[in-house]
Specification:
single chain; about 400 residues; alpha/beta; N-(1-d-carboxylethyl)-l-norvaline Dehydrogenase, domain 2; nine-stranded mixed β-sheet; five-stranded antiparallel β-sheet; about 45% helix; binds NADPH dihydro-nicotinamide-adenine-dinucleotide phosphate; binds 4-oxobutanoic acid; NAD(P)-bd_dom_sf; NADP
């Protein structure tokens, strides 16, 4: 009997793994093609990373038709107690139902939260915090973008300095290294308002040096710093399904984890400041090259008389399938690029990733070629289109050479 199962951050994986492990332990005769019922009724959001212990069980012999009842209990450091019951009936097939009851949920952040930068990503993130009941103060360079959030209950402050002074923790979601530095360290920047006992969480995608610089300024004021760039785009931001790549002050990470869990589906703590930025740039370097390569494939398939929509379908069923291809492919085939991740930001990330590679003499010829293509796309005025519009740069290149 397994006495301890370490749960992964995703609750569905957790429940599936728990069910399967218990099932195989208690029901040795269950056929190998056993399929558990989908756990769609369980929350898809991560709740906690927990260790489960069997605290009560009643199982009949696997060969009988009787019920299997198993209770697991876990208590987290934050006082959350979680019970999982597993019921099974063994016959020709086994049906499993998992029931999870969450009790004594105390894992929440009660301070005031600042949010700087209300673009494509920042707006839905701030909105999710407000909807979750957080006390939020917003600021954005273009003030009108604050209005929808103020209608939802946010307060407004007229500078990053004021936001940081009035909040326990301040998040920043800005375009690039320059704006991240300006908003944090510039005139009336967050650094001027922050102080001991407060925290600054930069979720913008920036390079390692920028993150370290902001960290130093925040630390010099006696406050705490966490970098926390995100994987996931507009829709995951709206749905609270982002992936956080955090690094920096561990105590601030622990403090804001309940907020990250409102905004995201998982979070990684990667140690020293710079590791989160580096991880994010590596991920986006891969993504930028993938999109450039996918664009070439779509155009080549069309040139040789194939239906690119069929290519998208074929790709989606094979080993190279990726949500990104299924999501963007159909609109790319129609030459439509509704902006979720602006092309200018993808090119910025490739540029920064190439800098990172240069700093350690790592060869990245594919990313370098992709970067050139995004630069061409920018020169065609596609900066604010979705990054999938990079395909237009290839269309133009083929015309040049025809
Ligand atoms: N969109 C996406 O899918 C994802 C984006 N990211 C990253 O998140 C960050 C934000 O992205 P996204 O929301 O898409 O970008 P947007 O371009 O939609 O928003 C950028 C934000 O930065 C502000 N800003 C830009 N320049 C300055 C400046 N000089 N001073 C003050 N504020 C400034 C903008 O203010 P204003 O409204 O006044 O222009 C706006 O609030 C970027 O680093 C991006 O790479 C990460 C994951 C996914
Ligand atoms: O930085 C942008 C990332 C977009 C995504 O992860 O889908």
């Amino acid at each position: 009997m397994p006495s301890t199962l370490l749960a992964k951050p995703n609750i569905n994986n957790l429940l599936s793994a728990t069910a399967m492990a218990l099932c195989s332990a208690f029901c040795p005769r269950i056929s190998t093609n056993f399929r558990p019922k989908p756990f769609s009724s369980f929350p898809s959001k991560p709740l906690l990373s927990l260790s489960f212990k069997v605290f009560s069980s009643q199982a009949t012999d696997a060969s009988s038709q009787g019920p299997l009842i198993l209770m697991l209990k876990s208590e987290s450091k934050t006082g959350l107690t979680c019970f999982i019951s597993v019921y099974g009936t063994i016959a020709t097939r086994c049906y499993l139902t998992l029931t999870m009851i969450m009790l004594n949920v105390t894992d929440k952040f009660s301070g005031r939260v600042g949010f700087l930068g209300l673009g494509i990503m920042g707006s839905p993130m701030a909105q999710n915090l407000i909807k979750a009941g957080c006390d939020v103060i917003v600021w954005n360079r273009t003030k009108s973008k604050c209005d929808p959030l103020i209608s939802l209950g946010a307060k407004y402050s007229s500078s990053p300095e004021e936001v940081a002074a009035n909040c326990d923790v301040t998040f920043a979601m800005l375009a690039d290294p320059e704006s991240a530095i300006d908003v944090a360290c510039g005139k009336n920047g967050a650094v001027s308002g922050i102080g001991p006992g407060k925290g600054y969480v930069d979720i913008s995608t920036v390079d390692v040096a920028t993150s370290k610089l902001i960290n130093e300024h925040i630390k010099a004021r006696g406050a705490l710093f966490l970098e926390a760039p995100v994987s996931g785009s507009k829709k995951p931001a709206e749905d609270g399904q982002l992936i956080f790549l955090t690094a920096g002050d561990r105590s601030l990470y622990e403090l804001v984890s309940p907020l990250l869990d409102i905004l995201g589906k998982s979070r990684f703590y990667l140690g020293e400041v710079g590791n989160g930025a580096a991880m994010k740039l590596v991920v986006n370097m891969i993504m930028g090259s993938m999109m450039a390569s996918f664009s070439e494939g779509i155009l080549l398939s069309k040139k040789v008389g194939l239906d690119p929509s069929v290519l998208v379908e074929v790709v989606s069923q094979g080993a190279i399938s990726a949500p990104m291809y299924s999501l963007k492919g159909p609109s790319m085939v129609k030459s439509q690029y509704p902006t979720a991740f602006p092309l200018k930001h993808q090119q910025k990330d490739l540029r920064l990733a190439l800098g990172l590679a240069e700093s350690v003499s790592q060869s990245t010829p594919i990313a370098a070629a992709a970067n050139e293509l995004y630069k061409v796309a920018k020169s065609y005025g596609l900066s604010d289109e979705d990054f999938s519009a990079v395909i237009e740069a290839l269309k133009a290149k083929s015309q040049d050479t025809a």
